[in-house]
Design brief:
Blueprint: E1 19-25, E2 31-38, E3 44-49, H1 52-62, E4 82-86, E5 89-96, E6 99-105, E7 108-114, E8 116-121, E9 126-131, E10 140-142, H2 162-165, H3 177-183, H4 199-202, H5 207-212, E11 216-220, H6 221-229
Antiparallel strand pairs: 1-2, 2-3, 4-5, 5-8, 6-7, 8-9, 10-11
């Protein structure tokens, strides 16, 4: 039973939103709770998983101290890591598991022991990064070790045909067609700063050596999503 005598329920003047807590539930009755900061313009920023400490703080405010609440927080990434496809603020992000990829550079095939990847689309460009360990929004991102990717993770598609551009109009294409469009493209020798070694040397390394030779991007997932959400440089 709520304790309506507590200070939090008394009227307070000049309130401004600072944080928002959102509760999610899927068809399997799995719950996920996140907290989002609110900036000075009233826009919610990227969310992060609510900690048990935060949940207990809310519980102490709104329930009697002798009542017990069991809270389960599921912080695993969903099928899509992030989906906001409203017309004025498109941001779609997803992850892919590690797998071997065949990279065709100037008509030569190389085997890339590609680690886990994080992808993001902001309605205009696609960004892709590698990562080694998933730590939700704190996941450290690395440069993808392929050509044709800018320093900030943005993919250079070259002369992408109009028919290929249509894949961005359907949400279900993002976890399947969009990555394949990238991996099946013919790479050239442009934008190779993500490769610490010459392609012929790097791709000849074994899986562990390739993984160790990825270059940190200086960003984590939270920083990338925040930047894309606010339409600023990644």
């Amino acid at each position: 039973m709520a304790n309506l005598d507590k200070q939090v329920f008394k009227p307070i003047d000049s309130l401004e939103p600072k944080k928002v807590m959102i509760f999610y539930r899927n068809h399997k009755d799995q719950n996920y709770v996140e907290v989002r900061e609110v900036n000075e313009r009233g826009k919610m920023l990227v969310g992060k998983p609510a900690s048990v400490k935060t949940i207990n703080f809310i519980k102490d405010i709104v329930v009697e101290s002798d009542e017990q609440i069991n809270v389960k927080i599921d912080c695993r990434p969903n099928k899509f890591f992030w989906v906001d496809n409203t017309p004025d603020n498109i941001l779609i992000a997803w992850t892919e598991k590690a797998q071997d990829r065949i990279i065709n550079i100037d008509d030569t095939n190389y085997t890339y022991k590609c680690p886990n990847t994080f992808w993001a689309y902001n309605g205009k460009d696609v960004y892709v990064y590698a990562y080694k360990r998933f730590r939700h929004f704190e996941t450290i991102l690395y440069r993808l070790a392929t050509p044709n990717v800018y320093d900030n993770g943005k993919i250079c598609w070259g002369n992408l045909s109009n028919s290929s551009k249509n894949v961005f109009r359907k949400l279900s294409n993002f976890r399947s067609v969009v990555p394949q469009l990238f991996w099946n493209s013919r790479f050239n020798n442009h934008l190779q700063s993500g490769l610490p070694l010459d392609a012929s040397l790097f791709y000849d390394l074994d899986k562990n050596a390739q993984l160790e030779n990825h270059i940190e991007s200086g960003r984590n997932i939270k920083q990338v999503i925040n930047a894309l959400n606010q339409r600023i440089s990644v």
